[in-house]
Amino acid sequence: MINELRRRWSVIPTWIKVVPVVLLLAGLSLANHYLAPTRPDLATLVQRLFFLPVFMASLLFGLTGGLICAALVSLNYLDLWWGAGVGRNHMLLAAAEMLLYFITGGLTGFLVDRERREARRVKEAENLALLGQAAAAVAHELKTPLIAIGGFAQRIQRDLEPSHPYRGQLRIIVDQVRHMENLLRQMLDYSRPLELQRRNLALDGLLQEVFTLTRPTAKEKRVSLASHLPPGGLSLAGDAGRLKQVLINLVNNAVDASGKGGEVVVEADREKDQVVIAVRDAGVGIPAAEREKIFFPFFTTKSGGTGLGLAIARKIVLAHHGDIQVESTPGQGTTFRLLLPQES
What we know:
Helices cover 64% and strands 14% of the residues. By secondary structure, it is of the alpha+beta class.
């Protein structure tokens, strides 16, 4: 019932939600303005009612809405600060009430935002679990016949003469089967629970392996690779194979996003008890509308992409009790930041 109400409420246009808050705030402000000179007792009651629009704005729009509404309510107290003949006690009382409005709006908005983030996280986890189960079932059913198709196609291709007219079509079949097998492997990799083999890793050695595997693609696209590590290097506890998989994916994505003559830089440093690894490019960037979707399974903007690379990378990082963040400006580049615990 609550989830259904949330779903219906989320589709209501923002301006409809704003109207009742604005009307209530405007009505109370006018009442306070006209009652203050003649009926200060009623004006005091109206001032107490200013908490209502602050609560409404916080519940509807979270922290930002609560603080904005508190600031608008505080405008009603300006005459107590700069008005003639206002005593010190009245000024202090007005300041205390203004502070209470901001505390109410800020605290209520913070709790509302936190509850919404938690609800989104739970919903996302449920959707990803269902998607993972479906992907595993589909991959399992398709794996055997696809292997058979690919095997027979490769055998026929080997037996045909080099000049045979069907040899080109068979090569297309073999390439597409290989692409589908890669997609199935990623689907199974995403759906299976991760079993990490943690050990102490030297980050410089890990990056050397990553660059060795990604440099041919970068060289083909005329993109240079560089790394910047602090003197003495860095170490962290993690699964070498899984973290290598994450970094290879991020570096390859950065290479694809870069133009000829571009550069992909991998930087790392220590922040408190975390190791922060940043993969930076100066490529096309990611539009704001796509930034929240890039970690969703099967979302991709590449013609030959599977849409699982970043989803798997995020799953691996979370399994290490870390986090992955993205900062991007269209036309200027993108930076992915991995925040990994230094010790397990």
